[in-house]
Amino acid sequence: MKILVLNSGSSSQKCRLYQVAPGAPLDPPPALWRAEIEWGLAQEPASLRIENSRGERIEERIDATTRAAAVERMLRGLWEGAAPAVRAPSEIQAVGHRIVHGGAEFRAPARIDARVLQAIAHHAEIAPLHNRAEIEGVRLVEKHLGSVPQVAVFDTAFHRTLPRSAAVYPGPYAWLDEGIERYGFHGINHRYCAERAARMLGKTPAEFRVITCHLGNGCSLAAVSGGHSVDTTMGFTPLEGLMMGTRSGSVDPGILIHLARKHRYTPDDLDRILNRESGLLGLSGVSSDLREVLAAARQGHSRAGLAFDVFLHRLRAGIGWMLASLGGLDALVFTAGIGENSPDVRAGACEPFAFLGLRLDPAKNADPAGDADVAAGDSSVRVLVIRAQEDWAIARECRQLLDSAQGKPPGRE
């Protein structure tokens, strides 16, 4: 079954086409086609990269007037242009979407219909950088691929196992009736990485305690015990928790009250400041990209140095928080853009936990090859670098759901 995956992030739009067999393994095969859009700053064109399994490539700048127009250009690259993967849209048999916020309703993937789409739209108020873009993706698929089955795979679903003590906020009890609680995000990748880590170390999920560190433009941690999420740093929205590229992460809520009173900031003002003008970009004044922030810091840029120090401090604090929820630790996993590619972040994050017997191998940490264990041989805690594979995880979930709906046994066409 040819399954197309749309993965809308806060700073990028990824798209993959896979051939997915029944009972597909956890480890991903090569994609038949891959594309990615990276959004520039305001008024700057986006960059588009497309590659198919024959090695044919496209790289271009897109002066599209809207995000939807840029994604539409990307989708057309599946069957036209210099790097197509299919002869016609009708060859695509299903589409899976990463949906960031599914609220309390969804604990598993769901076939997209009017009811599911309405729920996704409702939660766009809570995850404004993501859910609206994901709805656009659903509409574009309808426009170009017709009535092909579409499946929503929710980032929040993995965290529905949080104990109430971790999920409930200490505000008025009435908040619960309004659905205000910790939902957590990045769950698709947290789950994949926890399962992959267990397999790499020859463990079963039932006997495994792991902290997964998803560090990209958006950042979150998850404490996973027995294969279930028991704590996480993001909360009611993807704004809580760690410092991120343009998001503040957790701040004293009294600051917001102060700003609203002193400067008469509106909710939209606060939304813009906290989601788009804070984090690495807000503190450094240089970039939301950690690579550029680190380069500036090494050249003596004081604000960039401060931004990196704050990022690392909050990451260490978050790991300590997750460690307390687990009561012990078998492995620490780093994943996503920063987690996979920054030896400085991994080394800095691990340093305070030497008292646990956690030790990195400096040479392995400097240049991990693919999914790798970068801990020293005598480390009491394994430290793994695992490539994010959200797209493949979505494709597998999509195939499993559609096969189940058709009554097919696992592993049978």
Number of strands: 14
**Quaternary structure of the protein:** single chain
Strand order across the largest sheet: 5-4-3-2-1-6-8-7
What string, H for helix and E for strand, traces the elements in order? EEEEEHEEHHEHHHEEEHHHHHEHHHEEH
Characterize the largest beta sheet: strand count, sense, and whether it forms a barrel. Answer: 8 strands, mixed
CATH arch. level architecture of the largest domain: 2-Layer Sandwich
How many helices? The count is 15
List the helices and strands and how they pair.
Layout: E1 2-8, E2 12-19, E3 33-38, E4 46-52, E5 57-62, H1 67-76, E6 94-99, E7 110-111, H2 114-122, H3 131-145, E8 150-154, H4 164-167, H5 174-177, H6 187-200, E9 209-215, E10 219-225, E11 228-232, H7 253-263, H8 267-276, H9 279-284, H10 290-298, H11 302-326, E12 331-335, H12 336-341, H13 343-350, H14 362-366, E13 372-373, E14 382-385, H15 390-405
Parallel strand pairs: 1-6, 6-8, 9-12, 12-14
Antiparallel strand pairs: 1-2, 2-3, 3-4, 4-5, 7-8, 9-10, 10-11, 13-14
Helix pairs in contact: 1-3, 10-11, 11-13
